[in-house]
């Protein structure tokens, strides 16, 4: 996606499409990304998110904040502040939370269109409430059709990964080894229900699509 697509929301221009190797390593990528990742609490729901600009806009999943107007946002340094749900797209399972006036590093945005099968990636978030957790894996498939938003929803192309994703990871970033966000961790395949946990099949909304949705939400907010 061209950088102009992100400009209306004041987002940083995305980096060049990722190479197959990612160029970096998991430690460097984790260090670069962790300051921008947050934990989100909306009633009994728990999830993750990440800052997408310097204006206090946080990307997360719709299902993390569904039905909530206000949420609690725990920053990487442990501070807990109030946030407002600016808007969401239930069909795409993408939402934007706003925490204006709060100093937080924004994540570097990548380009999901250039992802390759077998490329190393990391998932960052708060699985089971364990904030700032990093797991590693690869891109298992690109453009994998997966249903979002419940029964009757249109199946959408997703990034499939074997990086460990569990309840609480939803809304957190999937990134390449240069720390550039390429997807929004959203769902997992399970056997015998969600309580079975991760079985090595997770899905992320491609960042190209997610940022287009976020830009529309912010422009309309």
TrEMBL record:
GO molecular function, one term: serine-type endopeptidase activity
One protein family per Pfam: Trypsin_2
Keyword Nucleotide-binding among record annotations: no
InterPro entries: Chloro_Bact_Ser_Proteases, Peptidase_S1_PA, Peptidase_S1_PA_chymotrypsin, Peptidase_S1C
UniProt biased composition (Low complexity): 1-20
GO aspect biological process, one term: proteolysis
Keyword vocabulary terms for this entry: Hydrolase, Protease
Sequence segments annotated as region (Disordered): 1-28
Record carries keyword ATP-binding: no
Organism superkingdom: Bacteria
Family: Belongs to the peptidase S1C family.
Protein name (Swiss-Prot/TrEMBL): Trypsin-like serine protease
């Amino acid at each position: 996606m061209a950088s102009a697509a992100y400009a209306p929301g004041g987002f940083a221009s995305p980096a060049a499409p990722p190479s197959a190797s990612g160029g970096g390593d998991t430690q460097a990528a984790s260090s670069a990304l962790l300051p921008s990742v947050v934990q989100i609490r909306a009633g009994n729901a728990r999830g993750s998110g990440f800052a997408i600009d310097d204006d206090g806009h946080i990307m997360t999943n719709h299902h993390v904040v569904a039905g909530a107007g206000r949420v609690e946002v725990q920053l990487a340094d442990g501070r807990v502040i109030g946030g407002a749900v600016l808007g969401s797209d239930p069909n795409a399972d993408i939402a934007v939370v706003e925490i204006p006036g709060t100093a937080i590093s924004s994540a570097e945005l990548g380009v999901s269109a250039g992802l390759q099968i077998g490329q190393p990636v990391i998932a960052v978030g708060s699985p089971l409430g364990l904030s700032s957790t990093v797991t590693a894996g690869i891109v298992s498939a690109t453009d994998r059709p997966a249903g979002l938003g419940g029964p009757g929803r249109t199946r959408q192309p997703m990034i499939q990964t074997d990086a460990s994703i569990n309840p609480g990871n939803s809304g957190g970033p999937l990134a390449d080894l240069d720390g550039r966000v390429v997807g929004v961790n959203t769902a997992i395949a399970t056997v015998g229900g969600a309580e079975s946990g991760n079985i090595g099949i997770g899905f992320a909304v491609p960042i190209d699509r997610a940022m287009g949705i976020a830009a529309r939400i912010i422009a309309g907010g």
